[in-house]
Design a protein that fits this description.
This protein has 275 residues and is of the alpha+beta class. It is built from nine helices and nine strands.
């Protein structure tokens, strides 16, 4: 059991991290942007020699356009029918969560489908694809500037790789595709320096909610996961773990109304313990 005093100290550190600027020292701090140091790239460079353009004919999807209905229907789904997701559906989800709509200035900032502090957008999108029409199973990286997808490499025993990366959550291995979001810290630190990391976590929430709503709009399911093995995730996509590392994961798959009883089983402890 963790020593209570150590636990108390760690909890206080976490609370302090969540607090605003008025609770922090170093008012004389200057960011690299203020020091006129070179700006980092807006997006990560391609990792493979070739990339596949993704379809953009989103009007062909059967979309739920009623916002109130979307907010009502948005939920976490952990039971999947294991049917395939179409390439157009995947393309829509990638765009909805991280799509680029415009570029501010010559190359100062990207304007995307989600908000980000200072328009820094410090995330990269990776996929482990199991069952997407037209795609070879394996690891992929999304290129938002051109709305393209690049194949990185095959992955041996995908269900086991997914389960291990998500610390034993084997239900996620039945998803058609798993979204992994990495963080490139200097993209935000260049502007905000020592203050960059708390707003970056808020930005991750923006990405997650857009993905949830986009899934609800096309009738498929997802579930945000914060419990993952960073080292395994980083190794899957060849990240260095310092200048880029994994921060969020979302299994995505087809769902059925008949599986709602199975969904409730995840919360059986509520009834068992009379909570």
């Amino acid at each position: 059991m963790l020593d209570p005093e150590i636990q108390k100290k760690l909890i206080q550190e976490g609370r302090d991290f969540m607090k605003g600027y008025s609770n922090r020292p170093f008012d004389d701090f200057e960011s690299d942007q203020e020091l006129k140091l070179p700006q980092p790239p807006l997006v990560k460079a391609p990792m493979a020699e070739q990339a596949m353009p993704l379809p953009r004919n989103f009007a062909d999807l059967e979309l739920q356009n009623d916002l109130i209905a979307l907010l009502t229907e948005r939920k976490s789904s952990r039971v999947y029918t294991q049917q395939s997701v179409s390439l157009l559906q995947l393309s829509f989800l990638l765009w909805a969560a991280q799509g680029i709509k415009d570029i501010r200035g010559k190359s100062y900032a990207t304007l995307r489908t989600v908000p980000s502090g200072g328009a820094r957008h410090g995330f990269e999108t990776y996929l482990l694809v199991r069952n997407v029409e037209g795609l070879q199973p394996g690891a992929y990286h999304y290129l938002p500037l051109g709305h393209e997808l690049e194949f990185l490499h095959p992955v041996d025993d995908l269900p086991e790789a997914i389960t291990a990366s998500l610390v034993g959550q084997s239900w996620a291995a039945k998803a058609s595709v798993v979204f992994y979001y990495s963080f490139v810290p200097y993209r935000c630190e260049w502007r905000y320096g020592i203050w960059a990391h708390r707003p970056a976590l808020m930005d991750a929430g923006h990405v997650g909610q857009n993905l949830y709503l986009a899934c609800a709009a096309i009738g498929i399911g997802t579930c945000a996961i914060a419990a993952f093995d960073t080292a395994i995730c980083d190794a899957l996509f060849e990240l260095d773990g310092e200048e880029e590392f994994m921060v969020y994961a979302f299994p995505v798959g087809t769902i059925s109304a008949s599986d709602q009883k199975s969904e409730k089983a995840f919360y059986q402890f509520v009834e068992d313990e009379g909570l």
